[in-house]
Structures are given as C-alpha cells and as structure tokens.
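Weekly puzzle thread! Below is a chain. First person to post its structure in token form gets bragging rights.
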Amino acid sequence: MYQLSSSATLILRLFIPTIWTVFFGSFTIVGWMTSEDFVGPFHSTIYRAVTTLFLVVGLILIRISFWRLHRIDADPGHLFVSNYFKTYKYPLAAMEQITIRHYGLFYLGRVELVLKGKLGRRIWFVPSRKRIEQFVRNNPNWMDLLKWS
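Winning reply:
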C-alpha cells in the first residue's frame, strides 16, 4: 500500500484544530468566568465579545478548510480514505477522477467518486507529489484518473 497524501495532513487535520481550540478556548473561558471589570487593558465585555468571535470564526475557518482534509492511501486496485478515525475502501471503478492543483506554495488534491461515499462525493487531501509520481510509475492503470492542474 502506498501513502499518497502528505504527512502534513495529520498536522493540518488534527493538531492545528486541537491547539487552536484549546488555546483560544481557554482565553474565552477565562474571559467569561472572570468577575473583574477589566481583563488586561480591555473592558471585560469587549474582551468576552472579541475572544468569543475570534474563537468561533477560527473554528468555522478550520471546519471549512482543514477539517475536510483526509489521508489517502492506495494499492493497485483500491483507494483507502481515512479521516484518522475510520478508513474507507473504494475500488478503482468507483473513482471518476483525481485532480491535483498547484497553488504556488502547496498542492491540493481532490478525489471525485462516481457515487457519494461515506465521506461525500468529493474527498480533499494534501498530496505528496513524489509519492504520487512513484505510485503512478508502478501502477500505470491509475494514469487515466490523475489530472494535474
């Protein structure tokens, strides 16, 4: 089995959301639990509103961007998609295409399934270009599915 997604997926999918939630969530909780009129140089009402808004907006952005990333592994006949809690196996025939786009500093991959699977019809991942190129060299039947943009 070959890992096609980058190891950065683990950091982006689990570590950053966890650290964000713990760090800014603790500031928000402290702001709401304090009985002081001022928290540092700020009035407690302003501090509560700003930290709560910052936490909520950050969590929404994490949900939209990082939380949709998955780990992708493959063998000659199947694609394995993991959200780090469960792994789902899709046969080669279940995939419509795999698109990999370059956005300057990073690549972003998308697997499109013919029918909706457990994780949706479109599955996003951070690809490892070297691993994908090596896998396609060893398994040329995957070349028809792969599209680089």
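Puzzle host: Confirmed. Bonus trivia for everyone else. The helical segments are 8-33, 44-64, 129-138.
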